[in-house]
Amino acid sequence: QVQLVESGGGVVQPGRSLRLSCAASGFTFSSYGMHWVRQAPGKGLEWVAVISYDGSNKYYADSVKGRFTISRDNSKNTLYLQMNSLRAEDTAVYYCAKDPRFLEWLFPAPGDYWGQGTLVTVSS
Amino acid sequence: EIVMTQSPATLSVSPGERATLSCRASQSVSSNLAWYQQKPGQAPRLLIYGASTRATGIPARFSGSGSGTEFTLTISSLQSEDFAVYYCQQYNNWLLTFGQGTRLEIK
């Protein structure tokens, strides 16, 4: 069965960096696009970024563009989110989610399977 | 950015009754609309995509309708496990956005 496990969260000071990972199993990781979505404590969902199945296409929310980088290593079945210049408002649970479409990338799609999330706290 | 607005913010319904949740887009998203359910401490679960297609394993009591800017999620006969927060999400362009959520609570 599809399994997504996020890791790398923790407490970090404003202005510092952190890299999140999402280990995937139970499906052919290299054939599916992947998303990052976050949720601030007690708040709603905010889409963060998406990457195509081969890593050649990436899109970002305006709130993280230029600071966050999504990437993937298909040989390790792992998705990443490099977060630089972190701010207090980046504090959230970060989820990775799988695109449902096999080897498709013409149009966006929602996430059909989600991990349980990893908490990032930006605080001095 | 397409702004998604959900109403009401909180909906109180008795078990066994019907619940109707609304989602409005600030511009047309065609049928590129998904609904998610989220329970406390859990990840969101995809319920509906393409505005009206149930995701794998989703019970038939969940149905979605609408296109363009107005969408509805209907739960025909509420079960105890359905009380949760529901989010809509548009994916009509590469700047995906969510609504702020509707909390469905037991009356």
Query: Gap between N and C termini of chain B, in Å?
Result: 35 Å
In oligomeric terms, what are we looking at? Answer: heterodimer
Q: Find the count of extended strands of chain B (DSSP E, 2+ residues).
A: 11
Indicate the percent of residues in helices of chain A.
Answer: under 10%
Order of helices and strands of chain A: EEEEEEEEEEE
- Helix tally of chain B equals 0
What is the overall silhouette of chain A?
globular
How would you characterize the largest beta sheet of chain B?
7 strands, mixed
Largest interface: A-B, 23 and 26 residues
Assess the beta-strand content of chain B as a share of residues: over 45%
Total DSSP E strands of chain A = 11
Cα Rg of chain A: 14 Å
Low-confidence stretches of chain B: none
Describe the overall structure.
The complex is a heterodimer of chains A (124) and B (107). Chain A has strands at residues 3-7, 10-12, 18-25, 34-39, 45-51, 58-60, 68-73, 78-83, 92-98, 113-114, 118-122. Chain A is mainly beta. In chain A, strands 2, 4, 5, 6, 9, 10 and 11 form a seven-stranded mixed beta sheet that branches. Chain A has a four-stranded antiparallel beta sheet with strand order 1-3-8-7, with no helix packed on it. In chain A, strand 7 and strand 8 form a beta hairpin. Chain A is globular, with a radius of gyration of 14 Å. The model of chain A has no long low-confidence stretch (mean pLDDT 97). With 107 residues, chain B is an all-beta fold. Chain B is built from no helices and eleven strands. Chain B has strands at residues 4-7, 10-13, 19-25, 33-38, 45-49, 53-54, 62-67, 70-75, 85-90, 97-98, 102-106.
Helices and strands in order:
The complex is a heterodimer of chains A (124) and B (107).
Chain A (H helix, E strand, L loop, with lengths): L2 E5 L2 E3 L5 E8 L8 E6 L5 E7 L6 E3 L7 E6 L4 E6 L8 E7 L14 E2 L3 E5 L2
Parallel strand pairs in A: 2-11
Antiparallel strand pairs in A: 1-3, 3-8, 4-5, 4-9, 5-6, 7-8, 9-10, 9-11
Chain B lengths: L3 E4 L2 E4 L5 E7 L7 E6 L6 E5 L3 E2 L7 E6 L2 E6 L9 E6 L6 E2 L3 E5 L1
Parallel strand pairs in B: 2-11
Antiparallel strand pairs in B: 1-3, 3-8, 4-5, 4-9, 5-6, 7-8, 9-10, 9-11
